[in-house]
Amino acid sequence: MVDKHGKANVTTYILTVMNMVSSLFKDGTIGSDINIVVVSLILLEQEPGGLSINHHADQSLNSFCQWQSALIGKNGKRHDHAILLTGFDICSWKNEPCDTLGFAPISGMCSKYRSCTINEDTGLGLAFTIAHESGHNFGMIHDGEGNPCRKAEGNIMSPTLTGNNGVFSWSSCSRQYLKKFLSTPQAGCLVDEPKQTGQYKYPDKLPGQIYDADTQCKWQFGAKAKLCSLGFVKDICKSLWCHRVGHRCETKFMPAAEGTVCGLSMWCRQGQCVKFGEHGPRPVHGQWSAWSKWSECSRTCGGGVKYQERHCNNPKPQYGGKFCPGSSRIYQLCNINPCHENSLDFRAQQCAEYNSKPFRGWFYQWKPYTKVEEEDRCRLYCKAENFEFFFAMSSKVKDGTPCSPNKNDVCIDGICEPVGCDHELGSKAVSDACGVCKGDNSTCKFYKGLYLNQHKANEYYPVVTIPAGARSIEVQELQTSSSYLAVRSLHRKYYLTGGWSIDWPGEFLFAGTVFEYQRAFNRPERLYAPGPTNETLVFEVSSFCSLSSQCLLLSLC
């Protein structure tokens, strides 16, 4: 590709193409605000180690996806998506030329090894290929394949790329696929501000002003091709007609680029041949409709979510107009009254819904599984009771599900949203040590103690009894020892390190609160819970070795 365009010109060509790609993703029919930013441009005059590119699109894409993953974070670089532009005539399934123009993993965007596409350089029409393949990476499927949209001309995600009177747009199905993808946690990489690692001079002219119709014909049909002169000139804004040999003109049903001269003092704008100084149909920027009524609350107790929504259709954006700024939905908490003490946890309810549904041919009793990465807290993971496996039953828990136990934050549309102690979305209000929202600890009573004793081996020794209602409980070992913390009820039911077994560090839910147990290698033990507890607890130390000493600092309020 560098040889085709020349080293001195290839950067301008690529940036021109990416400007066109950006315009396609800014078209109002896409329904979302997508910004395309080139953060780095690498020209490969020779194949670097670990990268193999040939006619076989599938193999080449796999190689490229692996290779680009190693660039993330290298020398300060970070990209959301990698695009390979190649001069090879690629084919999806064999190592020889065919009609394939691009190849992409479906829903690979933001994935380290799948956020990548391969695109064959065919001239300025390359922009439509990049937009199409990037659409696949955003989770879009071809129009008319498993969805109600027609395989219409002019749809960017149509199986065959052809313009509709020179105009390309996104179908309603493409809009829905994109909206669905952007609502998933996977799309989180797209939120941050892009950081460019290179300084690029972007063309300030339209593509057709830089590359005339003859040049565009050469890129599509070969070095001897030029603009057809048999009366097709004004039609090139809808389909570029080119001439190679004889009296025959041919087209790939792609429009001439924006700004291409189409007659005396006339140029192509939005699929129309208009006079210089006129810009064809003026952009119509989208405006929001009125807000809808509030939806039903997602929960009857415990803090659900309701929303209002609006649509960018008053009017909808046309002719390159901008999509409406701002969010299409606003959310509010509702029914924040506590649920009945004996009611089933909301996440547990969602897992239990799968008890009556066969899983791989068998029925199981499902319970929540919460030992997941932070970014997966709003997915529904369930563990089969009495079995050692768990599974993601849904990519999103229901709105209003707590992100984690004993915290106010809730899941909305698959994203963990902050909630203050005042039950307001986005609030930063926090409770003080004794549970007073926005308090200053002035109403708290603090209790502290120091435990210094020696113990014989193979015994449990009571340290302190903590009453129900306690908050901000912290037990801290002052130095490492061969003893271990244990916690039980008054009825000798052990919750932590009981029955002569030692629990691993982690989070433990008992007595109505979550206890965080820390025991790093060669570091003192620590146990903390925000409270309040709903039963009396007995804290003990256990020694499994010879005579040992224990030094504990205890505090609560």
TrEMBL record:
Binds 1 zinc ion per subunit. Its cofactor is Zn(2+). Keywords: Calcium, Disulfide bond, Extracellular matrix, Glycoprotein, Hydrolase, Metal-binding, Metalloprotease, Protease, Repeat, Secreted, Signal, Zinc. Zn(2+) binds at residues 132, 136, 142. Ca(2+) 1 binds at residues 80, 189, 192. InterPro entries: ADAMTS/ADAMTS-like, ADAMTS_ADAMTS-like, ADAMTS_CR_2, ADAMTS_CR_3, ADAMTS_spacer1, MetalloPept_cat_dom_sf, Peptidase_M12B, TSP1_rpt. This is ADAM metallopeptidase with thrombospondin type 1 motif 18. The lineage of its organism: Eukaryota, Metazoa, Chordata, Craniata, Vertebrata.
